[in-house]
Design a protein that fits this description.
This protein is an alpha/beta fold. The protein is built from eleven helices and 15 strands. It folds into two domains: 172 residues, Quinone Oxidoreductase, Chain A, domain 1, CATH 3.90.180; 137 residues, 3-Layer(aba) Sandwich (Rossmann fold), CATH 3.40.50. Helix content is 27%, strand content 26%. Helix 9 links the parallel strand 12 and strand 13. The chain binds zinc ion (2 copies).
Length: 341
Amino acid sequence: MKKQLMRQMWCEKPGQLELRYNPIFEVGDDDVLVKVAYTGICPWDVRAFSGKSSVAFPRVLGHETSGHVAAVGKNVTHVQVGQPVVADFIVKCGVCRACRRGRPNRCQNPTYQQFGGGYADYVRLPAKNIYPLKPETSLKAAAFMEPLACVWRGQRMLQLQPGDVALVVGVGPIGLMHAQVARRFGARVIASDVLPERLQKARELGADWVVNPQETDLKTFVQEITEGWGLDAAVVAVGSARLVEQTLTLLAPGGRLNIFAGVYPRDELRIDPNLIHYGEYVLTGSADSAPEDMQRALDLIEGGLVNTESLISHVLPLEELGRGFELVKHREGLKIMIEVA
Ligand SMILES: [Zn+2]
Ligand SMILES: [Zn+2]
């Protein structure tokens, strides 16, 4: 029997994309084959594509995927053929110290889908990496599970209480999810960005205040609305050491700050340690997400508690992935979704 072919957008080396036809994956006993519906473009993909990260090539990028189950291995029981699902593309080993100490997001032996990313007709993953969706859930909204899981993890670090004032620095798709989750914790949210259209979107999605720090002095603004108290919490969703330093000076006593974005190229922080000491600040980071964060993210999406679908500015066909990467690189629009159909 002739093998059926699928399309995959291969990235042979940074900056080079090629649509190829390859045989559809064989399904092992514990695997699920997913027919891809949507895969979001993540800044991580764009950084990898630009050759600015250490990932190996050639590869098929894409790790924010929703779709339908196309086939299951004989040991798979939690999903059935035809069911809508979302995929988590990093397979954690489950036995390393990080996995066993409750930080599987920092797994020491993870398996990446180097040749099986989501910019393709099909992906194949172990069953434990497949999350079933309710039939009525939007596949576009659900494709945000992975980035929202990372956001959820970062927000948890902030220990928000109702009435807290929280700042989100940078309201691209990620920051806009931070703002929504912070509001769900009962915080009042300030959104800061230099792009007016992003501030407008933050306002639509419920930010209590929006500020362009190029037009308004952020420190004066924070002092005014908090009557001199400062921020109870802040998340820096832009990879910038300077923004971390500046944001730290806005915190109230006991303030928490999450460094959510990686900083490239490498940089250093210059912080007066007395700020942290006398302010009793908590400086945290968060990176990637654990399966429990994924499930939480899905619950937030399916429960209508975080609006992800409205973050999509462009839906492009697989052939236009390169254009999508360009849009993200130049911060045009918001979330770019690849529709694989
Ligand atoms: Zn991502
Ligand atoms: Zn592990």
